[in-house]
């Protein structure tokens, strides 16, 4: 497929790797006879490592067929994570190294996830935008410190650590943004 046909979300092959296009910049030349250039911001599938690629508008990139299935996290099998398809209950197993940093956001019965599949093999997991998680350890609120908004560290049920406002205590559920890892408010 030609570079000018590529849209955000397409999956392409480049230098033996598979990448999903996340952002596209188009630059037109100022002089006559110049070629249009495209700059793609791509993330590897699996892995999620970023790559910037600049190509001409007529350059060819091979499109890869990627399908997505909505799944629910089921259980952990050693170092692997097992997800069940929401429609036909097909189990998809992803190794911990494929899940990567997303493992810190995976809680029991997590819904709204998507498994990305290439050639009938699960290659990556997409988490929902935010996940409700329980605070298991955080220092107590300082008395008289309510006038200032000082964040404090909190350890969550998966071992993940984030900064939360002072009024959050042990045992509370909070929303955590899976993209930025930031506190998003009280849950429930």
From TrEMBL:
Q: Taxonomically, which superkingdom?
A: Bacteria
The record's keywords, sorted A to Z, are:
Elongation factor, Protein biosynthesis
- What Gene Ontology molecular function terms does this protein carry? translation elongation factor activity
Gene Ontology CC: cytosol
**Elongation factor P C-terminal domain ranges (all copies):** 131-186
Q: Which Gene3D superfamilies match?
A: 2.30.30.30, Nucleic acid-binding proteins (2.40.50.140)
Q: Which residues form a coiled coil?
A: none
Question: Do the record's keywords include Zinc-finger?
Answer: no
Instruction: Tell me where in this chain the Translation elongation factor P/YeiP central domain is found.
Output: 68-123
Family note? Belongs to the elongation factor P family.
The molecule here is called Elongation factor P-like protein
């Amino acid at each position: 497929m030609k570079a000018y046909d590529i849209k955000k979300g397409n999956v392409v092959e480049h230098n033996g790797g598979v990448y999903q296009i996340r952002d596209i910049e188009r630059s037109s030349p100022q002089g006559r006879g110049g070629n249009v250039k495209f700059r793609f911001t791509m993330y590897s599938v699996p892995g999620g490592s970023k790559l910037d690629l600049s190509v001409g508008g007529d350059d060819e990139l091979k499109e890869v067929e990627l399908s997505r299935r909505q799944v629910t996290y089921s259980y952990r099998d050693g170092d692997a994570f097992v997800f069940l398809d929401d429609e036909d209950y097909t189990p998809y197993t992803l190794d911990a190294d494929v899940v990567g940093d997303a493992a810190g956001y995976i809680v029991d019965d997590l819904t709204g996830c998507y498994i990305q599949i290439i050639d009938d093999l699960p290659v990556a997991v997409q988490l929902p935008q935010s996940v409700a998680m329980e605070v298991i350890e955080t220092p107590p609120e300082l008395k008289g410190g309510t006038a200032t908004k000082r964040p404090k560290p909190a350890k969550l049920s998966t071992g993940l650590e984030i900064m939360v406002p002072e009024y959050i205590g042990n045992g509370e559920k909070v929303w955590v943004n899976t993209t930025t890892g930031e506190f998003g408010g009280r849950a429930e």
